[in-house]
Amino acid sequence: MDRVNRLAGATSPYLLQHKDNPVDWWEWSDEAFASARERDVPVLLSVGYAACHWCHVMAHESFEDADVARVLNDGFVAIKVDREERPDIDAVYMDATTALTGHGGWPMTCVLDHDGAPFYAGTYFPRAQFLGLLDAVTRAWREQRDQVTASGAHIAEALRRSTLPRADAPALPTSADLDAAAGVLVGQFDAQRGGFGGAPKFPPSMVLEFLLRTHERGGDPTALAMAERTFDAMARGGMYDQLAGGFARYSVDAGWVVPHFEKMLYDNALLLRTYVHWWRLTGSPLAERVARETADFLLRDLRTSQGGFASALDADTDGVEGLTYVWTPAQLAEILGPDDGAWAASLFTVTDAGTFEHGASTLQLLQDPDDAARWADVRTRLFAARSLRPQPARDDKIVTAWNGLVVAALADAGTLLEVPDYVDAAAACARLLLDLHRVDGRLRRTSRDGVVGNAAGVADDYGDVAEGLLALHQASGDAQWLAAAGEVLDVALGHFADDAGGFFDTADDAEQLVRRPQDPTDNATPSGASALAGALLTYSALTGSAPHRAAAEGAVAAVAHVAGQQPRFFGWVLSVAQALDAGPVQVAVVGEPGGGALTDTARRAAPPGSVVVSGEPDAAGQPLLADRPLVRDGAAAYVCRGMVCDLPVTTVDDLRAALSATR
Prior knowledge:
Oligomer: single chain
Shape: globular
Strand order of the largest sheet: 2-1-3-4
């Protein structure tokens, strides 16, 4: 019988990838640290995730190697952590890694003392270098224990002291402050290729939302131009799947040509929502196509049998990065025939030299096809042929926060694009999160195959789930989602709030690490603090709750000064600030419970960050519809701020005029 280690009982697909390693892995636990104390050996902490290319490389080179395993098992307690399952552990030790080495990434490799204090940290190590590291640490642990433990204690103390600088008198950003933040982005914008900075280039989803809101609020043409150039470049480049829809994690080059091929749920949820918002604002056909294709990708390739959404598709196929996705001219001709093959090669920029590796190319669509029917036929045949290739593995754990992002994106896309199936999928996912991921009123971080994990939910789980529930409430008119969002937010206010403003990433009763993480920056996803700020503001606008608005304002004010200086890393909190600056505007439509012309107009024309509800007057559980009567027994729209409304309007033209006047 083949030997398996302790990870065989894990729910994380990443940990399960290592269950057959000869390394005697532990999951993160008190028992693991107790074993280290009993054996008087240090802890080797390895952090990664299932779709990580270099994590796979290090696993094959080192963790599957019997000699490396022998050294690890004899001299260490080895702990394996899925960063997506335990983002709190990842955050603390990534701070240590970047502080010690000047950079971070995954796999992350740290050596800890018995109290969890790190005294050595790095990322990927080739086998020989890794063995050398293990030998050096073992000798230092035996011969220089005092220096090692003192170093760990010093690093741990530095981590506890490291906080984002706060303003002496935190204040909400003004309209001028928000315009200035957009101006900072102008100086960082790549006007030639779109996006910000150089290679590698990541999709700036939340910054794009901020730019759309900046343009919508004040008509700034530069903000819209930056957003549109970036949207266009990402959608036409190799980072976007030109056959199946959906985006890869990032581009390894500055021109969006070659992706890092993993497809992450959170990227596609955030990009779906921003592309559909771009379409709402401009009517761009490209925006609509990409939004529909990305939503269809999510439903086809990432939706699980439980109704949730899997975390990722792997970067590798059979150990080769990009194997599923790249093409040569000869391969195109083989599938399509010489004429269509040559036409497709020209259209997709598939060259003899190749744009990727070994003469293969990613697919780009730098110009629109000159024959739509031929284009559709070619795509269909290529996708069918690609489906017969080996496929990347799927990390099928359901992450609470990321599924909350999907709920919001599908709810918005379903209402704006008029695809009820998207809203239905959002509702099924929301029901799964509330029924399975909420245990005794508290959110858990993950589930897999219908079994909820043990890891406690963190701040972004609460914020993103609440955001999704509130978007779903507005899309469906169902008051149950508004009530559920209020319950989720009340737990967050009770357990995550920082008295100085903002939120911690972990609850006040969570496991104590070497420090309590609190990172307000928006990176690949909204930070816990900004996610909660946005949901709290939307909830307050839908219900009139002053305490929820005050908490949102406190979270935004706590980081407003640094967000204005570094807007690339605070895209979502700046988007929330735009909504605060706008009111946010509230639109209550009565007499159109299933939707109608006034409801559709409100959804298309309301200012950024607005809330829109539609239903019968005085509908139960929907405060914004209270005391909003019909007009002459017909439908009417009320445009409000702070629950105080203008006179109702009954025509689409009058509603557009009323909404225009709010800007």
